[in-house]
Specification:
- By secondary structure, this protein is of the alpha+beta class.
- Helix content is 28%, strand content 20%.
- It is built from 27 helices and 31 strands.
- The strands form seven sheets. It has a seven-stranded mixed sheet, sandwiched between helices. It has a five-stranded mixed sheet with strand order 2-1-5-3-4, covered by helices on one side.
- It is globular, with a radius of gyration of 28 Å.
- The termini are far apart.
- About 3% of the residues have low confidence.
Length: 947
């Protein structure tokens, strides 16, 4: 019997063992996504006879004779389903990769199910949003819903703040113009996302890639070994296998998978395929076949002989004399490795003032060792790429990447190709968080496509994401800090050891950045840092949201609370007394501040006041509602933490854009930066619309294609708005002048008397339509397209402060978050609803990192948390609704006063929660995650719990 798909009978027959997800995608239903292939994430949810099922674990043969509905079939007769309308109006998505599955589940809910979303959405995971916008969309509340704990004032820049310094009054709130700066403009891709027509990396119809081959990898079972031999013959004998590539077929060129504007920022310690494997899961061979199944069978058939080498698994052991040298054969200077024989990738040693003198003058000293764990990005779209050669022989790569231009440069360098013969394109990217600032798939498909002259595709499984991509860097931080009894920070000393895993991608940058703004935010004349980034035979670490700051801020902000308690001072007052203010040098490891980092605006004092006052209001709400007495087994506490981040990465971050007036009177913006839920597409449209006196709906944004513009460093370091956006604004302003000049020539009016209005130019009492401007410019030979660029300097600083009220059960270790508040200094907020979503998503991801997420590695170097059900990311029920507030500032360096706000919301969450738990229980937790069993055991050891 045929399977009915969206009302039409399919003529295809499922293969033996085929799941419904792959069957539906082969039939062209690309809205059905792969997030796990284990029934854990819900991205593949479809309806079978009206009931939601996870199609990745539903045998396709069981659907024979049944009616299957995918997201493409949810709307009827061109009309969106109510749930699709609600997700579009309420912006219940960011990257959108999980959204189709979320809507397919929610579309079946009745009122009773909608009343219990924590239970009924437990099978659908989202990594981007923090779930608040999803809840509002499912319930049809849009953006007008009230907080459970009171009025939703998120995004209200003019919110009155008790005790806020006068700077707030001096910087008036921006009045939003519809479709322009300050407006809650919906994402330009809203309709495509909610209808399942947004095209992600692998959403390419088969007819567009004739002869497509599939690549799978044989990965190392050993933590450290030399490959003696690989017998390809058994794999090549597998029906459907076309080729096998090993280290003998790969370029000798060393490179780093990490991608930065300056590739010399990272050590050259990696080969596409190597004859030495340095962690369990490393690539050994690439098998290319006519089908995924054949490629997997080929990988199983390969015969490999290894010579086992001694491994080392912890950075503490790796730096001991006599430890195995993981990259000992490399030339340290040529590869930019600090001390390869000692496993040290990079190091920094600095002292400002004299910490010895500072400690001698201190009335209270806090010493503790803080530890942070490996955390996985868990972007819902796994790493994937397709490569092929076009009719001119150019290498085309379509990839899930944050950095298409840097990928192009790396492929050109690796395969010795002229840059003009390589093109890299990113579709819509299903989440990144730093994990896609790497080359982890593109080199493989490029190698195969260049050798075989056929299209080649690779898609990582969720398990491969865990065992063979990258994680957050684990940090061990030995901290000593001193304060005087009158409330001044007297000395701060840190000994930092970071575990970069088997390769040094991002190791120097994460270490240096971590030791930067985390220290610079505090005035202290005596600071000392000794930091080392160290190789081990474990899964590599890489770029992760916060880029080293979250790890260091956890330690420093925990210590700040301990110092305040030690001298009997309120922790927020201690912060207010010691945090930098305009005019203060921001110093970390050098005696002089970064020459291009300035206080473009300053709202840290406002953020502290916003959080302090919100917590006070929340406490009063609980008291008034009679909820402040939870019983004798519960203790309640409050905690806060602050963070600062430079708005742009150092040493240059470049963007080139083009803005043009089209023949129909609409505008087009060409940008290089990628969209992966960070919202920059909408920001570009709003900035251009503001400069051109139109609305974002009349701006088309084309992006993420290396053929579009000259160059773009990429979407990382929170640079989408403040770098690429600044380039877009500059181009749009120049185009506005050019349009006005043409209008002046047509009307005889003075240029100063010509101003843009929506769809036209007003010249005195005459109005000239933009379509007429286009015609006139053509006759005059005037090009109505302008280019903009920005180099990422000067830079400003952005601030975030987070506060929690928590309750801890002294009998069980249960933790309840009673209130969660974050205040952000994002400058002039281009799109408040979108920015709020970024903050909520950062909070949710950080809560996972502080409470339960951990990539666990056993004593053989093997990752044991290699599927989602073993690695707990926050589900709907895990995430509290946070209050989000914005300081009122206007930045002098950012476009129209805006600042960055993508990474930074993550950074203060862990120490704020740890400080709240400390305030409630008296116990300082210095190791992440702070899981419930750890809380229980610590309480028991303090005799608060009977044995």
């Amino acid at each position: 019997m045929a399977i009915e798909i969206n009302g039409a009978a399919s003529q295809a027959t499922p293969r033996p063992g085929q799941c419904l997800r792959t069957f539906l995608r082969e039939e062209g239903n690309f809205g059905v996504k792969k997030g796990c292939d284990g029934g854990d994430c819900g991205a593949c949810t479809v309806h079978v006879d009206g009931k939601p099922v996870h199609s990745c674990i539903y045998p396709a043969v069981r659907a024979e004779g049944k009616a299957v509905t995918t997201i493409e079939g949810l709307s009827k007769d061109g009309e969106l389903h109510p749930v699709q309308e609600q997700f579009s109006e309420g912006q219940g998505f960011q990257c959108g990769f999980c959204t189709a599955g979320m809507m397919m589940t929610a579309a079946t809910f009745d009122d009773e199910q909608r009343a219990n979303l924590p239970r009924n959405l437990k099978g659908n995971l989202c990594r981007c949003t923090g779930y608040r916008s999803i809840a509002d969309a499912v319930c049809g509340h849009g953006s007008s819903h009230q907080h459970d704990a009171g009025a939703d004032v998120s995004g209200a820049q003019s919110q009155a703040v008790v005790g806020t310094p006068s700077a707030a009054a001096e910087t008036p709130a921006v009045e939003a113009t519809p479709g322009q700066l300050g407006d809650n403009v919906p994402a330009l891709a809203s309709n495509a996302v909610v209808t399942g027509t947004a095209r992600y990396t692998l959403d390419v119809p088969a007819e567009q890639l004739p002869g497509l081959l599939h690549l799978k990898l044989l990965r190392s079972p050993h933590a450290h070994a030399r490959i003696v031999s690989i017998d390809k013959a058994p794999a090549l004998a597998v029906p459907g296998v076309v080729a096998v590539f090993t280290h003998e077929d790969a370029p000798q060129q060393l490179f780093s998978t990490a991608q930065h504007e300056n590739y010399t920022d990272d050590p050259d310690d990696t080969r596409v395929l190597d004859n030495v494997v340095r962690f369990i899961g490393q690539r050994v061979a690439a098998i290319v076949a006519e089908s995924v199944g054949a490629a997997e069978a080929g990988a199983r058939a390969l015969a490999v002989q290894y010579e086992l080498l001694e491994p080392v698994f912890t950075p503490q052991e790796a730096i001991l004399p006599g430890a195995p040298a993981i990259h000992g054969e490399k030339d340290g200077e040529a590869s930019r490795i600090s001390r390869p024989l000692q496993n040290v990738v990079a190091e920094v040693h600095a002292e400002l003032g004299s910490v010895a003198d500072g400690f001698a003058a201190s009335d209270f000293i806090h010493e503790h060792t803080y530890q942070t764990q490996r955390v996985q990005h868990v972007a819902m779209e796994t790493h994937a790429s397709i490569a092929w050669l076009d009719e001119d022989g150019r290498l085309i790569v379509r990839s899930s990447t944050q950095v298409p231009f840097l990928v192009k440069r790396t492929l050109s360098r690796l395969f010795n190709l002229p840059p003009e013969t390589v093109r890299v394109v990113a579709g819509r990217v299903g989440g990144g968080f730093g994990g896609k600032q790497e080359v982890l798939t593109e080199d493989l498909v490029a190698l195969a496509a260049l050798k075989l002259r056929r299209p080649v595709q690779v898609e990582f499984t969720r398990t491969e994401q865990f065992i063979a991509t990258t994680t957050r860097h684990p940090f061990t931080i030995k901290l000593k800090a001193g304060a005087t009894k009158d409330g001044y920070l007297a000395a701060l000393q840190l000994d930092v050891l970071t575990n970069t895993g088997a390769y040094g991608n991002h190791a120097p940058g994460v270490m240096f950045h971590g030791c930067g703004e985390s220290l610079a935010v505090y005035k202290c004349v005596n600071k000392k840092v000794d930091a080392h980034a160290v190789y081990t035979n474990t899964v590599p670490a890489g770029a992760f949201r916060g880029y080293g700051l979250s790890q260091m801020i956890f330690a420093i902000e925990s210590a700040i609370d301990e110092l305040a308690v030690g001298i009997g001072m309120d922790p927020l007052e201690f912060r207010l007394k010691n945090m930098v203010r305009p005019g203060d040098h921001m110093l970390s490891t050098t005696p002089e501040p970064e020459e291009d980092v300035h206080y473009g605006s300053y709202g840290l004092d406002q953020c502290v006041a916003l959080v302090r006052d919100a917590l006070a209001r929340g406490k009063e709400r609980y008291r008034a509602a009679g909820l402040d007495d939870l019983g004798p087994d519960w203790v309640v506490g409050e905690g806060s933490a602050l963070s600062m981040i430079d708005t742009v990465p150092p040493r240059g971050h470049f963007a080139y854009t083009r803005v043009s007036l089209e023949s129909d009177g609409r505008f087009a913006v060409d940008v290089g930066t990628a969209e992966f839920g960070n919202g920059t597409t909408t920001v570009h449209a709003q900035l251009a619309a503001t400069a051109l006196a139109t609305t974002a709906s009349k701006v088309t944004v084309r992006q993420s294609d290396t053929d579009l513009v000259e160059h773009d460093t990429g979407a990382f370091g929170s640079a989408g708005t403040v770098v690429a956006g600044k380039a877009t604004l500059g181009a749009a302003l120049e185009l506005a002048t050019r349009i006005q000049t043409v209008a002046a020539s047509l009307t005889g009016a003075a240029l100063a008397d010509c101003r843009l209005v929506d769809g036209a130019v007003q010249c005195g009492d005459r109005t000239v339509k933009l379509t007429d401007i286009v015609d006139a410019a053509r006759l005059q030979g005037v090009r109505l397209a302008t280019d903009g660029n920005w180099g990422g300097t000067p830079r400003s600083v952005a601030f975030n402060v987070h506060g929690f009220r928590v309750a801890v059960n002294t009998g069980t270790g249960e933790l309840r978050i009673l209130q969660s508040v974050q205040a952000a200094d994002a400058g002039v907020v281009v799109n408040p609803r979108q920015c709020r979503g970024q903050i909520e998503g950062g909070i949710a991801q950080a809560l996972g990192a502080v409470l339960y997420e951990e990539v666990k590695v056993d004593n053989t170097g093997r990752v044991t948390t290699d599927i989602l059900r073993q690695y707990h990311i926050p589900s709907f029920a895990d995430v509290p609704r946070s209050e989000v507030y914005f300081a009122t500032t206007n930045d002098s360096t950012g476009p129209l006063g805006a600042k960055s706000m993508s990474e930074s919301p993550f950074n203060p969450v862990a120490p704020a929660l740890a400080n709240a738990i400390r305030n409630a229980t008296g116990i300082r937790f210095g190791e992440l995650p702070i899981a419930r069993d750890k809380i229980y055991l610590a309480l028991r050891d303090r005799t608060l719990i009977p044995n």
